[in-house]
């Protein structure tokens, strides 16, 4: 094309420059020659490319085209931004650059005493040196002499240059028809005019570049961050930010901080698990269940109609022992600890995030500084008056149109949520059907043979495990088919709501719905008029909730890691196998990167979503599963390295983006943390058997079925089971084989047959309900008050960071603004009296600045 230079590959595969070795490549465009395509399509594509590249050159960019050394149909267009263009767009994008070295004394950290230990976990300082500390300010082209510029070629980093290049590419027009202007590389990629557009990696990840001007940052990131041998090292966050931009850097900073905080929660959770494991054999109520003279003599009522049979309580001996591991007083302590932990995590993250904001120059990064997307600008066809500036501005929708779009979005989310709830109902029906089938298959002629087929496989356990596996599969399928939108801002809350219901609905059902409305054997409650509502095990639904959580958490972690590692690796392996040239020494840098996988614009969104859903499992249901932080910690140790490995080795370089924080995920995490206090209190009260045990422990002879004046747990099992007369069975619910049994037991607190108020809830039931409600209110208020105190005591921004921000603002004002004010004053050549007045005014201003 006119103005574009064509050049053959110069045989330097590691080169990051044009053929002249001087102009740096800031971006790569790839397209395919359409010789064999139909004439009209070929002509349209070529015309749009010519116009687009001409627009780029009018905007000051320089282009050089080179044919592929592998596929003759492919052409690579190298894009370079001259110094003047860089300066212009650095000012447009408010890019902060060094102003002068930081002259503030660094504050002493109390953690330095552990430096002799922590230094072994730091990246190699000889390879990855510490970044120089500068005060920075937004670049201004007319005042570039005041900035710390030593070398114009190195002043703007490659990530800054590629960000500015991408900004131009997204706004360069490629076609104008009448009053309609079409622009942006994104549309050209979607229509197939270009096959790819990406910035270059600086070298191969496993081989150091031989080019003298190459920083080899990708090679350093692989060896000190992404390589499995570096799994124990801290992340080189400054280098990650420098190479990939602030948005990627803040994600890995958050993930690393979250994983570090999980270590403390994992230690406490593991201690609670060990405590429960050690005490399972000594638990009084568990021993009563397993005792042949107690549990072996208690005949339980059938849990389904007609075909289910009576069964002995001691058949659930192993399940009751497992339940003791997770349902004990240590779990209650751990639930309260996690409520405090999540507050500390969020508050300390805010402080750490404030430090990163200052170090990475995003303190004053506001939404109005980030110019709108070109695709958004193209939709802005309506006008309105800005209430702040009073200036007319373009907007994409009218108020009515916006309401319609919001309604459609809400309707879509509600539809998918209803679909998820329908799947939960379907799984519930499956539970009932399988439990019925499993129970009837165990029916025999003798009461002694009513034990499970195997010691460890009860109908409840078999139903729970298979239903959890099916539920996990349903979750994965619904995630795959869920409709995705174009941009993160419109997707975050909508997708989280979907995932929240998808992942947690079955857990909420087991924790707060299952076994809560079942009636009693003579008058059971039916689901959809056909199936008798399922009951919990005599020990409660806690063990089933634990099973559900462990299967979903483990399955989700394994599935995600397989997807993240295996799929891109297999795709790249196939690509390399199909390439005729096998030696990368003969392939230029831009073509090596082209063979890597493209980065999805929502890739980081799903990484956040995965971790936030995990955060929900760790906090919302931790009262039933103290090993959740342990599983999360192990998963995250792999997650950090897996994400690093695929980003460094399997994907093209990401276009750097600026970000001040983790965005919409921050309030979502805070919302989950607040909800976690309520869910854990309710799990302890309603799902766990802890409150009834405590009531029994402090009870006296006013309750039926015995007293507990000695304050022990002896006799609790007998106290927690009500009596039912088999003669009160209806014809529809009566079991086929009665074995001449006159009474059976069931889990509830009701008056026995023959009592004036038979089968009504007794006073023990109402005392337990009152104790549960009192427990929830007291625990919630104590924990929320503690969270409030901690939030108030821990400032969001460290004092040292506040000092540095004030110093930087002062220097920016003095160096850039007051210096220019003096120049303007000199040009005006005022009189002596005016000069005296101006001097007095300037001194007054300086005193004000110093006070500031």
From TrEMBL:
A single BP term in Gene Ontology: calcium activated phosphatidylcholine scrambling
Biased composition (Basic and acidic residues): 830-841
Transmembrane segments annotated in the record for this chain: 251-277, 329-349, 413-438, 458-479, 491-512, 612-638, 668-688, 764-785
Subcellular location(s) per record: Cell membrane; Membrane
Annotated protein name in UniProt: Anoctamin
Occurrences of domain Anoctamin dimerisation (ranges): 17-237
Region of interest (Disordered), ranges: 830-852
Pfam families: Anoct_dimer (PF16178), Anoctamin (PF04547)
Membrane topology: Multi-pass membrane protein
Listed GO CC annotations: plasma membrane
Residue stretches of biased makeup (Acidic residues): 843-852
Coiled coil: none
Entry keyword set: Cell membrane, Glycoprotein, Membrane, Transmembrane, Transmembrane helix
Domain Anoctamin transmembrane: 240-808
UniProt record similarity statement: Belongs to the anoctamin family.
GO MF terms, alphabetically ordered: chloride channel activity; protein dimerization activity
